[in-house]
Amino acid sequence: MKSDRLLSVLLLLQTRGRVPADQLATELEVSPRTIYRDVEALSAAGVPVYAERGRHGGIRLLPGYRTDVTGLTGDEARALFVLAAQDAHAALGLDNALVSALRKVMAALPAPHRPAAELTSRRILVDPDRWLSGPRADVELDALHDAVFADRRLRIRYRHGGERELRTYTVDPYGLVSKAGVWYLVADRRRSPALFRVDRMASAEVLQEPVRRRPGVELADVWQPLRRRVEERPMPVRVTALVHRDRFDMFARIVGPVLVAVPKPPRTSADPDSEGPDSAGDDSEGDDAWVTVRLAFPVLAAVTQLLQFGPWLEVLDPPEARAELARRAQEVARLYTAETAPVHSSHAAPTEDGDAPADDGAAGGYGVAE
Predict the structure, then answer these.
(1) How many Å is the Cα radius of gyration of the chain?
(2) For 266-284, how does the pLDDT look when each residue is reduced to its tens digit (9 = 90+)?
(3) What is the DSSP string of 222-251?
(4) pTM of the predicted structure, to 2 decimals
(5) Torsion angle, CA of 364/252/82/178, rounded to 10 degrees?
(6) What are the distances in angstroms from CA 343 to CA 293, 332, 346?
(7) Residue 315, φ and ψ in degrees, nearest 5
(8) Over the stretch 206-224, which tens digit does the pLDDT of each residue have?
(9) Burial class of residue 46, CB neighbours in 10 A (0-12, 13-18, 19+)
């Protein structure tokens, strides 16, 4: 609606000062000509808005002009009160500020929208943490927060996944990202994008040097390619396996990230009309008690995580995966069938080529130092 767009133009100008017409047109998905017509309409309504010509021109309000209009619709008001868990705000020291801000927004809402907004905050809760994610180490965000907002460089001491030694890096931060309850620092190191898990930082020092970000590059511009690099990393080891239907739900929940496709839930006796599992494109190969699945792993050693399912899962192919699982199972059997007391203290550490890789996810091993 035109009235919503006029209000959006007004609020954007009030927030940013001078804004080029082309930029307003792009954000509001209209033509620059429409923006100029909207400016004329605002001016006719008594809003002190004008256009500046020239290379550095744009549209702006007279200095000092403010409006108290919130302009929130009912849906917009409800959207503000769909609260995520406050862990992210608490980590930044903003949990009390969030409560105060929402209280002020509630007071500024038009009276008809207040009951729906208040009810939304009581009926909808978004918790970004995964189930059974386990305890997390406390993270210290103060120095990172200061560097990000003061536009300063950072010197960090950092431990990569699977390593014991700390490394020291000087980085140019773009910002902080909280993903699934884990905090990451997104930064440039030697002009290349890098991702660092905050809980792997031993220390962070804010330097006096101004940050050296690449011109015109924002946090979201750096984050998206880094995220894709993690999610689309090569998974050359393809595995075919049978999973017992009684353990299928648990299996899919645990190994979901390495499933080539998400199979449909298997048919059960309580659901006789079901067509059965899709099984990533296959049926259950004739035995109704088993579901055929296909998985992908970055290295052969990673298949050892399938041992946790015991006799409820059998790898069919490739032969190298079966051999790796057999070797590891024999090592575990020897450990627990020994007639002596526990001997782990005298054991040599597992060989590096036999270890499954650390579950780095986006844990700082991608785009950082090799």
Answers:
(1) 28
(2) 555 444 444 444 444 444 4
(3) HHHHHHHHHHT----EEEEEEEEGGGHHHH
(4) 0.62
(5) 0
(6) 37, 12, 6
(7) -80, 130
(8) 999 999 999 989 999 999 9
(9) exposed
